[in-house]
Amino acid sequence: MDTILSISVFILFVWLSFLATVSFNKSIPIDVYRKQARKQFTDFRTHSSTPEFIFIGEEAEIIKSDESIINNKGVIESYSLTCYARNSHGEYFMFVSNHEARPYFKHISHANAKIILGKDYREPT
């Protein structure tokens, strides 16, 4: 009976080790997350009756961007890309991609854009 228990524990250990290895090998490369985030940005659009507040990602100018990566032992658990962008009317917006959900998007006042962007801030034309 002890032999059967020992063999069962050994098989369970080998199986769990195998599963850990398989899940590690299936981690998604960072470039895939980056590509998805950039596509999410360029595909993003808003609609407004006021032209200054219309945002079209493929036409917007990215002024500043930051990545947030959470990884655990080489496996990326979370990735987000934050872009501070400017539309053709000189209005600023913040876009935060999220590979698991809809992106967060917000208009930024010029006063806040000056603080966030520092020397990269430009007055509207």
Describe this structure in words.
The chain has one domain (about 30-120). It has three helices and four strands, in the order H-H-E-E-E-E-H. It has helices at about 1-25, 30-45, 110-115, and strands at about 60-70, 75-85, 90-95, 105-110. A four-stranded antiparallel sheet has the order 1-2-3-4. The longest helix has 24 residues, at about 1-25. It is elongated, with a radius of gyration of 23 Å.
How do the strands line up in the largest sheet? 1-2-3-4
Radius of gyration: 23 Å
Average of per-residue pLDDT values: 85
Number of helices: 3
Q: Give the terminus-to-terminus CA distance.
A: 83 Å
Specify the helix fraction band: 25-40%
Strand content: 25-35%
Shape: elongated
Number of strands: 4
| Helix/strand structural class | alpha+beta
Unreliable spans are: 21-25
Please provide the ordered H/E string of secondary-structure elements: HHEEEEH
- Biggest sheet architecture: 4 strands, antiparallel
Number of domains: 1
Keyphrases for this structure?
single chain, 125 residues, alpha+beta, 4 strands, 27% strand
Summarize the topology.
Layout: H1 2-25, H2 30-43, E1 61-72, E2 75-86, E3 92-96, E4 104-108, H3 110-117
Antiparallel strand pairs: 1-2, 2-3, 3-4
Outline of this structure?
The chain is of the alpha+beta class and 125 residues long. 37% of the residues lie in helices and 27% in strands.
